[in-house]
Design goal:
Layout (H helix, E strand, L loop, with lengths): L8 H4 L8 H11 L22 H39 L1 H8 L5 H22 L3 H19 L6 H7 L10 H8 L7 H13 L4 H4 L1 H25 L10 H14 L4 E4 L2 E7 H17 L7 H22 L3 H12 L5
Antiparallel strand pairs: 1-2
């Protein structure tokens, strides 16, 4: 059972489609078009055009990306275990290992190495003080903060809009790159704070998934939410920009709420109002379904539902049926790498 979590519902629902006045000005020309102006004609080269075959192409990219995430997670998990085995071998006879790897260095190099070793030691101490969930959350926070800062550079505005704000009307590489990079992109400080706060609250899922599986699910949920956003916009002829980590976070939230349905949650600033995790995820899904039905424009409800769908799928099926199959892949990778040596 997870410890009591805190859910900032209002902050979480500032979604990938979150817009502020300045960002709205950047995208006004595209959003001002009427739906009937978007036609599936191969000859159209306008950036406001949603091309034929979009769903199939982006669906293939999503499938390849998600598969690659979990394959990469399996290999990373194996390499971590392998490094531990190598360290064990080295520690068994450290003098022999040192003789094999001893290099002649001058005093300046030795002094520099000592400083680097001291810095590494301090960073390692700081890192070890973090909880397992925070060790996953901290790098994601840093990546989001860096992208938030890049939005503030005027000369990068066009590049950021092209690659860090997903839009099914994009062309070329940006159509696919924005599906991934937009999950680390926030234009508003409040949007960034709200999403990172909620992710921190549910980062304890690492206890159930492990580091590698957590990252794979987070990244996959982000791209899958971009795909569902693309699909909905294409089917309704309504291109527009979306950004934010809400889709990826929704995947983690849905997984945690389904895995631990009886966990008690509360809303920030109203701690006395408690409810079960199962009730929370049902409410959020119903809210997003209503958003699709009534075409609410404040949030990207399709992205939310896509992230939640992947989180629920992994909880009920993927974690127990798909993830254990990595043993076959690890066996092949082990043969490729060979036995660990000193």
């Amino acid at each position: 059972m997870l410890s009591r979590q805190v859910l900032f519902l209002r902050g979480f629902n500032h979604s990938r489609n979150f817009r502020v006045k300045q960002f709205d000005n950047l995208t006004r020309n595209i959003r001002s078009k009427r739906p009937e102006e978007y036609k599936f004609t191969p000859e159209t080269n306008s950036p406001t055009y949603i091309r034929e075959g979009l769903i199939a192409k982006c669906g293939l990219f999503t499938a390849v990306f998600c598969t690659s995430c979990f394959v990469g997670a399996s290999i990373c998990e194996y390499e971590k275990i392998r490094r531990r085995a190598v360290n064990t071998l080295r520690n068994a006879n450290p003098l022999e290992w040192m003789r094999k790897h001893q290099n002649s260095i001058n005093d300046k190099q030795k002094e520099l190495n000592d400083e680097i070793a001291k810095l590494k030691k301090n960073l390692k101490q700081m890192w070890n003080q973090l909880s397992p969930g925070e060790k996953v959350w901290a790098p994601i926070l840093v990546a989001n903060v860096i992208v938030f800062g890049l939005w503030r550079v005027p000369s990068l505005r066009a590049t950021m809009l092209r690659h860090f704000a997903s839009n099914p009307a994009s062309t070329g590489v940006s159509l696919y790159s924005s599906m991934f990079f937009s999950t680390f992109s926030h234009y508003s400080l409040f949007h960034l704070f709200a999403n990172m706060y909620v992710l921190h609250s549910f980062s304890s899922a690492v206890h159930s998934l492990g580091y590698e599986q957590f990252i794979a699910l987070y990244l996959s949920a982000g791209v899958f939410s971009s795909f569902t956003s693309y699909a909905f916009k294409a089917l309704t002829y309504s291109p527009g920009y979306s950004l934010g980590a809400s889709g990826a976070i929704m995947g983690m939230l849905a997984y945690v709420c389904a895995q631990y349905p009886d966990t008690k949650l509360s809303i920030m600033f109203i701690p006395q109002w408690q409810f079960s995790a199962e009730s929370a995820i049902r409410f959020i899904i119903c809210l997003d379904l209503a958003g699709l039905a009534f075409r609410w424009k404040l949030f990207d409800h399709a992205a939310h539902l896509g992230g939640a769908a992947l989180g629920l799928f992994w909880c009920y099926y993927g974690k127990d049926k798909i993830w254990p199959q990595r043993e076959h892949l690890i066996g092949l990778w082990h043969q490729f790498r060979g036995k660990p040596t000193k």
